[in-house]
Queue: 2 jobs
Job 1
Amino acid sequence: MEDDEQEQLIEAARERDDKKSGVSDRVSDELIVRTLIGSGMRVSEFVHCRPQWVRADESPARISIPKHEDCECSDCTQKASEAAERRVENPNGTERFKKYTDYDSTLDEMLRKQWKPKSESGSRTIPIMDKRAVRLLVEWFDDHDEIPLTRNAVGYRVRTISDPLGFDHVVSPHICRHTYAVNAVDRGVSVEFLQRAMGHSKIQNTQVYLDVKGDRVAEKFEEAWS
Ligand SMILES: [Zn+2]
């Protein structure tokens, strides 16, 4: 997203929040878009964000994604139960009680393996430069200990905010992550440092963000020579 598109998206989010003010325990749209753009977190990471991840007192503030945390959110429960079903053999439905017990313990085991970062490098510390995003997160976590949204719900919210704006491209949580990367590159963050912030295991995945906008190259040269 271009700078003006980011501003429009945030403004639209704020307007929607104003209309929904009074709806209790609603994660604000502004928190969603500002955090996604401001941290570049994957949507699966965002929905698992916990109060202890947010290190607001440090300068700059940062989000610290741990290697693993047990999770029983609806996303993880669904994935775990699918995995447990696959593991539990149930050829003819006999011995149901035994099988049921077996399913439960298998489900417990599967649940303990749920939420983890996408890869080893997914566990990381992300600098977050948008102070307002940090404040919204801190305020939310003052009263809550999780972001009670599924990945789909976050995607739906982002589309609902952005669709009326009529951009010539869709806006998704992934586009917000992408925008974090482009913003960092525009401000001169090197690809090696960006790779760490994005949690990419391969630098090739980060380099993609450098190549998206051919015009940027010309703009950078113009700036450098002006
Ligand atoms: Zn979960």
Job 2
Amino acid sequence: MADENKDASQDPLQENLFSLEIISLKPIMGSKTAQLTHTALASDGWEYAVKSCDDGRSSLIKAAKNPSLVPASEWICNKLADTCGIATPPCQVITDTNNNQTFFGSRYDLSALATPVSILDFIDHLADSDLLQRQVWAIYAFDQFVFNIDRNTNNYLYSIGRDEKTIVQAFDFGLSSLVLGWPNQTGTNLLPYGCPTTDTWRSIKKITGTNQSCIDAALSVLGNLSRINVDFLEMICDRMPPSWLPPLQRTALLSWWDSQRHSRIESVRKEVLR
Ligand SMILES: Nc1ncnc2c1ncn2[C@@H]1O[C@H](COP(=O)(O)OP(=O)(O)OP(=O)(O)O)[C@@H](O)[C@H]1O
Ligand SMILES: [Mg+2]
């Protein structure tokens, strides 16, 4: 019985249950990204885009108030998005056993593209597909909730469904949530105008218009966020290495979630219905 009550994050055996090991780590070649410096081949045989607390710290992005919280933000947002019914690539905690450094890993979707084949093509698909419209509205509501400033067209993964239509997954929450001072410093504030998320949204909304099916998709995400209780969020936090989120910030997040998240959800609901 005592074991059941033990905090999993304090138990190295438990922690290993939730992590993969690195087989090899490779620096990113080619064009520079803001936070991603390495990819890793992991013990499950798949390649991951990996981010450590140090990658955040060395990034030059000025908007990042707490850059070392990049892995925690990625982990929490991916798990919450997934729970709300938003498609995201699978993610894992990955450990380098040489030095016990831990990484957030986003599993490479080898069949997807991280850039639309062409923007015009994406616009055509968006105008044509009710499903894609619902996806981008759901992702927008979620991004507003977690204060993700960076949803540009290169932060969706694009695939072609069996009906030949484009579908997307949301990835890259490295400039969102805890990194940006969410939730206590953002309170109920919506994203600022002029950030990639709001700029991209303006263009998307011109194409989709505002129809009930899109609104319903966004409201469904907000409804799910209001149903995720603090114990569930705590479980998500317990499954990442304790070093990713200092105890004070963890306590502040959980306490905000328990008492104040509904005001933020309400603020996003008004934006979605606007
Ligand atoms: N799960 C994944 N599947 C496929 N490609 C991925 C995945 N994760 C990351 N990538 C690729 O790695 C690139 C950089 O990843 P990511 O956007 O998370 O890092 P970043 O440093 O925040 O980048 P940027 O500043 O360019 O947005 C992506 O644009 C994409 O090409
Ligand atoms: Mg990116």
